[in-house]
Write a structure and sequence with these properties.
alpha/beta, Collagenase (Catalytic Domain), 16% strand, YbeY_CS, endonuclease, YbeY, EC 3.1.-.-, hydrolase
Length: 167
């Protein structure tokens, strides 16, 4: 039994095979969930919570971004928590949805000189933290969220996405 039940849907874009995406996503999301449980001093829930991942393209995410956030432009990742959660709280049985856009991820990875898989890993962690109430609108919130991202990515063997130093 998995610690988190992940449902994957590939809607559009030249994503890797669903089996590959599921394997990668499980590794990333479970590492992030375990990290949050340790930092918050709370055990993981007995019944695995559910998470939905949608892998799509810029056109689709642009439509969603315009409808739900009033921003008529593509973005790399969108997160929709199933329930409102404050940072440090444990969510309910359904975590929510994370949507990722292939073209934006590919372009950003190239601009940063990073492998696509590394940037995808970062954005999975980023989107996952949003489901737990973390945000980056205010400076102090951004510092807390970026610190968590950096520590989780370090556990996954990746460097700090916000700095030049390896974790």
């Amino acid at each position: 039994m998995s610690e988190i039940e992940i449902q994957i849907s590939v809607e559009a874009g030249p994503w890797p095979a669903e089996k590959t995406l599921l394997s990668m996503s499980e590794r990333v999301i479970v590492t992030a969930a375990r990290h949050l449980a340790r930092e918050e001093g709370q055990p993981l829930p007995g019944t695995p919570p559910e998470l939905s991942l949608l892998f799509t393209d810029d056109a689709s995410i642009r439509t969603i971004n315009a409808e739900w956030r009033g921003q008529d432009k593509p973005t790399n990742v969108l997160s929709f928590p199933a329930f409102p959660v404050q940072p440090g709280d444990m969510p309910g049985p359904m975590l929510g949805d994370i949507i990722l856009a292939h073209e934006t991820l590919t372009r950003e990875a190239a601009e940063m000189g990073k492998p696509f898989e590394e940037h995808l890993t970062h954005l999975l962690v980023h989107g996952f933290l949003h489901l737990f109430g973390y945000d980056h609108l205010e400076t102090d919130e951004a510092e807390e969220m970026e610190g968590l991202e950096t520590r989780i990515l370090g556990e996954l063997g990746l460097s700090d996405p916000y700095g030049d130093d390896p974790v």
